[in-house]
Write a structure and sequence with these properties.
Layout: H1 3-25, H2 31-47, E1 62-65, H3 71-80, E2 84-86, E3 92-96, H4 100-104, H5 134-153, E4 165-169, H6 171-175, H7 177-189, E5 194-200, E6 203-204, E7 207-208, H8 217-224, E8 227-231, H9 237-249, E9 255-260, H10 283-293, H11 307-336, H12 338-348, E10 366-371, H13 372-386, E11 390-394, H14 398-401, E12 422-424, H15 429-441, E13 445-451, H16 455-468, E14 473-477, H17 495-500, E15 506-508, H18 513-524, E16 531-535, E17 539-542, E18 558-562, E19 571-575, H19 580-592, E20 597-602, H20 605-609, H21 613-619, E21 627-634, H22 639-642, E22 647-651, H23 660-667, H24 671-681
Parallel strand pairs: 1-4, 4-5, 5-9, 8-9, 11-12, 11-13, 13-14, 14-16, 15-16, 19-20, 19-21, 21-22
Antiparallel strand pairs: 2-3, 6-7, 10-17, 18-20
The protein binds thiamine diphosphate (TPP) and magnesium ion.
Length: 685
C-alpha cells in the first residue's frame, strides 16, 4: 500500500468504527466523526507529540475535543493508537485505554467509550467535554499553564515544558458565550501555543446555521487578535498538516483554523443534513456509506491489517522519541536543578511541598474582627509563597476579593511576563472557571475569584471540576447580605444550597478569621476534589479560642464551638459564616438566662456528612431535638440537621437594598431572634 492509501485506510477506519458504534448503541453522533476523521487523523498521526504508552507524560501535546458529542473520534483514535491506561494513582497499567470491546459497547454501562469524553474515566482524555464551549475555554487554561510552567521551569538547554494545546470545536462551541470570553482572553494573552480547529459544517441540531449563526467568524477571531487560517476541504490532509505547521511557526498569537467540512461525509442521503448529527445512520445507509468509502459493506468494527501499525509508526514512534528525549533532558535537569525537578515531581502527583503551611497566620481574639476576605488575602499570600505552583486571580474584583498576591516577585501573568502568579481574568467569570480547570488539569494549583452571587456565571465549570475530580479552588467573597446597599442583585440566597448539591464539590463557609485559615488548610490538601470558599465582605469577630474550641474543627465540617455545662445541651445552635458569632452571642445570652445551649460551627455540610456516625452524633446528639440553624442563605436543606422539631433562620425571599444592620433586623439575623426561637423550641422557657 502507498502511504496515501494507508492514510485513507486509517481515516476510513475511524469513520467506520464511529458509524458502527453509534449504530450498535442505537444512539450517538456519527456525522461529525465521519467528517473530521481526516483532521483528527492528521493532527494525531502526523503532528502531535503524544506517546500512547504513557498518556500522562508531562510534556505531551494536549488534545481537547470540545464538541464532545463527537466522542467516537476520540475513542477510535485512542484505540487505534494503542493508548494505554493509567489509574488514579498515576500508575501506568499497560492495558488498553479503550479496547475494541469498549467501542462495541459504546455508551453502555462501564464501557471505556462513554457518550462523551470523561477525564478520570478514560485515560488519554484531557478534559471532560459535552457542555458546548467548555472544552475550548478549558484549553485556554492549559495554554496559560504551559506558558507559566515554561517560564518557571525551563532553563537554557532544558526545555522541560514546550507542548502545544489543540482543541477541536464546532458551531455549538462557537456560539456559546464562554468560548467568546475565553478566545478574548487567549488573544489578549497572545497564547501562541494554542490552536483551535473549528468544524465549519453549517449544521447544528435544528438544521442549517443560516437560521442562527451568520456572523463573520474569521473577522471575529481576527478581532480577538488570533491568527486565522482556513482549510477549504476537510479531506485534504496535506493542507491540514500545512496549517498545523503554520500554527507552530506563528509567534505572539493563538491560531484559529476554520475547517470547511461536510457532516456525515460519504452518506448519500444524510451528508450535510442535521440528520447526520445525532442519530444512527440506519442499517441500509451504513451499507451505502461503506460502499462509498470502498469498505466491505457487511464488515463491522473492522480494523484492517496495517492500520494499527500505521499509527504505531506515526504518533507512536514520534511520541516515543519525544518522550525519550524529554526523559533524557529531565535526567540532566535533575542533576543541575534538583530543587526544580522535585517541584515538578510533586506537582505531577498533586502533592504539596514540605513546609507548605508554614507561617500561616493565627489571629488573636478580636471583637471588632476581620472580614473573611481579608483573612483569605493574608492566607493566599502565605500559601503562594510556600507553594511555588499555586497561583490564580479574580474576574476584575481582586481588590474586593482580596486575592491579589502582593509579595515581592509575585508578578502579573501577561504575554510578556508569563511567570507572573496574578492572573487577571477580566470580567469573564465563565471563562475564568473553565480556565482554572485547565490549569488544574495541567497540575498547576489554581484559584479563581469573584463575588459569590456571580458563582452562577462560573457554575458550569464548577460542576465539571467536580465531575473531573479536579482540585480547582473557587473563592467567592461577599457571601451574603454584607454588601447591603448593593441590594438583591448582589445578595446570594440560593447559591450555597445549589453548590452543596454538586456531587463531590466541597463548600466551606468559615465563621471567623481562624476558620478561614483552617478552611484553606483543608482545601490545599484535597488532591481530587474542587472547593468553593464563601467568604464575608464585612468584618466578623475573631472568636477567643482560649474560651471556645479550636478552629481546626473545620476539617471535620462541623464541630462543637461552645458548649453547655458538662456537655449536656438542651438546645443546639448551628451556624456558618457571618452567623457564627451571632449564634455565640445568643449562646452567651441563653447561658446567663439559665438555658443550656451548644453552638455548632458548621462550615461544610459535605465534610461533616463524611464523618463517622459516632462523631456526627457527638456533635449533634440525636436526643437533642431543639435545634436552631442560622445562615444567611436559602433555608432549603437545613431540615436534615435541625430535624422535624427544629427551626431554620434563613432566607425564603431575595434580600433588599439597605444598610446591613437594617437587613439583619428585617430578616431576623439578630441574637435576640435566635434566643427567642431557641426558647420557643424549649416550650417557651
Ligand atoms: C451547552 C450545551 N447546550 C446544548 C447542547 C446540546 N447539543 C449537543 S450537540 C448540539 C449541536 C451542536 O452543533 P455543532 O457544534 O455544530 O455540532 P455538529 O452537529 O456540527 O457536530 C447541541 C445543541 C450541549 N451539548 N451543550
Ligand atoms: Mg456544526
Amino acid at each position: 500500500m502507498t502511504p496515501e492509501q494507508l492514510d485513507q485506510l486509517s481515516i476510513n477506519t475511524i469513520r467506520t468504527l464511529s458509524i458502527d458504534a453509534v449504530q450498535q448503541a442505537k444512539s450517538g453522533h456519527p456525522g461529525t466523526p465521519m467528517a473530521l476523521a481526516p483532521l483528527v487523523y492528521t493532527l494525531w498521526n502526523r503532528v502531535m507529540r503524544f506517546d500512547p504508552v504513557d498518556p500522562i507524560w508531562p510534556n505531551r501535546d494536549r488534545f481537547v475535543l470540545s464538541n464532545g458529542h463527537a466522542s467516537m473520534l476520540l475513542w477510535s483514535i485512542l484505540h487505534l493508537t494503542g493508548t494505554r491506561a493509567v489509574n488514579a494513582d498515576y500508575e501506568r497499567l499497560g492495558s488498553p485505554s479503550v479496547s475494541l470491546d469498549d467501542i462495541r459497547r459504546f455508551r453502555q454501562l462501564d464501557s471505556k467509550a462513554p457518550g462523551h469524553p470523561e477525564y478520570h474515566w478514560v485515560s488519554g482524555v484531557e478534559a471532560t467535554t459535552g457542555p458546548l464551549g467548555q472544552g475550548v475555554a478549558t484549553s485556554v487554561g492549559m495554554a496559560i499553564a504551559q506558558k507559566w510552567l515554561a517560564d518557571r521551569y525551563n532553563r537554557p538547554g532544558f526545555d522541560v515544558f514546550d507542548y502545544h494545546v489543540y482543541a477541536v470545536c464546532g458551531d455549538g462551541c462557537m456560539m456559546e458565550g464562554v468560548a467568546s470570553e475565553a478566545a478574548s482572553l487567549a488573544g489578549h494573552l497572545g497564547l501562541d501555543n494554542l490552536c483551535w480547529l473549528y468544524d465549519n459544517n453549517h449544521i447544528t441540531i435544528e438544521g442549517n446555521t443560516r437560521i442562527t449563526f451568520t456572523e463573520d467568524i474569521a473577522a471575529r477571531f481576527l478581532g480577538y487578535g488570533w491568527n486565522v487560517q482556513r482549510i477549504g476541504d476537510a479531506n485534504d490532509v496535506d493542507r491540514i498538516e500545512h496549517a498545523l505547521q503554520v500554527f507552530r511557526q506563528t509567534a505572539g498569537r493563538p491560531t484559529f483554523i476554520i475547517v470547511d467540512s461536510h457532516i456525515g461525509y460519504g452518506s448519500p442521503h444524510k451528508q450535510d443534513t442535521a440528520a447526520a448529527h445525532g442519530e444512527p445512520l440506519g442499517e441500509e445507509e451504513v451499507r451505502l456509506v461503506k460502499r462509498s468509502y470502498g469498505w466491505p459493506e457487511d464488515a463491522k468494527f473492522l480494523v484492517p491489517d496495517g492500520v494499527r501499525e500505521h499509527f504505531t509508526a506515526g504518533v507512536g514512534r514520534r511520541g516515543a522519541e519525544a518522550r525519550a528525549r524529554w526523559t533524557e533532558v529531565l535526567r540532566g535537569y535533575r542533576a543541575e536543578h534538583p530543587e526544580l525537578a522535585t517541584e515538578i515531581d510533586l506537582m505531577q502527583r498533586r502533592e504539596l511541598p514540605a513546609g507548605w503551611d508554614r507561617n500561616l497566620p493565627v489571629f488573636p481574639a478580636d471583637a471588632k474582627g476581620l472580614a473573611g476576605r481579608d483573612a483569605s488575602g493574608q492566607v493566599l499570600n502565605v500559601l503562594a509563597q510556600n507553594v511555588p505552583w499555586f497561583l490564580g486571580g479574580s474576574a476584575d474584583l481582586a481588590p474586593s476579593n482580596k486575592t491579589l498576591l502582593e509579595y515581592e516577585g509575585a508578578g502579573d501573568f501577561q504575554a510578556d511576563s508569563p511567570g507572573g502568579k496574578n492572573l487577571h481574568f477580566g470580567i469573564r467569570e465563565h471563562a475564568m472557571a473553565a480556565t482554572v480547570n485547565g490549569l488544574a488539569l495541567s497540575k498547576v494549583r489554581a484559584f479563581g475569584a469573584t463575588f459569590f452571587i456571580f458563582s452562577d456565571y462560573a457554575r458550569p465549570a464548577i460542576r465539571l471540576a467536580a465531575l473531573m475530580e479536579l482540585p480547582s479552588i473557587f473563592i467567592f467573597t461577599h457571601d451574603a447580605m454584607g454588601d447591603g446597599e448593593d441590594g438583591p442583585t448582589h445578595q446570594p440566597v440560593e447559591q450555597l444550597v445549589s453548590l452543596r448539591a454538586v456531587p463531590g464539590l466541597v463548600t466551606l463557609r468559615p465563621g471567623d478569621a481562624n476558620e478561614v485559615v483552617e478552611a484553606y488548610r483543608v482545601v490545599m490538601q484535597m488532591r481530587h476534589r474542587p472547593a468553593v470558599l464563601a467568604l464575608s465582605r464585612q468584618p466578623l469577630p475573631t472568636l477567643d479560642r482560649t474560651k471556645y474550641a479550636a478552629a481546626a474543627g473545620v476539617a471535620r465540617g462541623a464541630y462543637v464551638l461552645a458548649d453547655a455545662p458538662g456537655g449536656k445541651p438542651e438546645v443546639l445552635l448551628i451556624a456558618s459564616g457571618s452567623e457564627l458569632s451571632l449564634a455565640v452571642e445568643a449562646h452567651e445570652q441563653l447561658r446567663v438566662e439559665g438555658v443550656r445551649s451548644r453552638v455548632v460551627s458548621m462550615s461544610s455540610w459535605e465534610l461533616f456528612d463524611e464523618q463517622p456516625d459516632e462523631y456526627r452524633d457527638g456533635v449533634l446528639p440525636p436526643e437533642v431535638t431543639a435545634r436552631v440553624a442560622v445562615e444567611q442563605g436559602s433555608t432549603l436543606g437545613w431540615e436534615r440537621y435541625v430535624g422535624p422539631r427544629g427551626h431554620v433562620i434563613g432566607m425564603k425571599t431575595f434580600g433588599a437594598s439597605a444598610p446591613l444592620k437594617e437587613l439583619q433586623k428585617k430578616f431576623g439575623f439578630e441574637p435576640d431572634r435566635v434566643v427567642a426561637v431557641a426558647r420557643s423550641l424549649l416550650g417557651g422557657r
